[in-house]
């Protein structure tokens, strides 16, 4: 897993468990981007990866108090940055 800095953009699929991040941009075609927005994954939204499937097929993400399941291919289209927190160390 990569180390995270606040300025670095990393695909959501590569984020370690329980590390708070913020959505910064998307890649992919318009239909995927529209679906992400409908699910509440808008720019600036804080996310936490809660679970990973044992064989790497999907991840579970907490977003706005709800948990969403995403395929790794979809999560790779969402780029995130480390979330700023009150204590400044990137952890909740």
Structural write-up:
The chain contains two helices and six strands, in the order E-E-H-E-E-E-H-E. The C terminus is likely disordered. The protein is 14% helix and 35% strand. The radius of gyration is 12 Å and the shape is globular. Strands 1-6-2-3-4-5 form a six-stranded antiparallel sheet. The chain has a single domain, classed as Roll (SH3 type barrels). It has 92 residues and is an alpha+beta fold.
Gist?
This protein has 92 residues and is α+β, with helices and mostly antiparallel strands. It is 14% helix and 35% strand.
Q: How many domain regions?
A: 1
Tell me the radius of gyration: 12 Å
Q: Please bin the fraction of helical residues.
A: 10-25%
Quaternary structure annotation? single chain
Overall geometric form: globular
CATH class: Mainly Beta
Query: Regions with pLDDT < 50 over 5+ consecutive residues?
Result: 86-92
Fourth-level CATH superfamily: Ferrous iron transport protein A (FeoA)
Describe how the helices and strands are arranged.
Blueprint: E1 10-11, E2 21-26, H1 30-38, E3 46-52, E4 58-63, E5 66-71, H2 72-75, E6 78-82
Antiparallel strand pairs: 1-6, 2-3, 2-6, 3-4, 4-5
Any key phrases for this structure?
92 residues; alpha+beta; SH3 type barrels; six-stranded antiparallel β-sheet; 14% helix
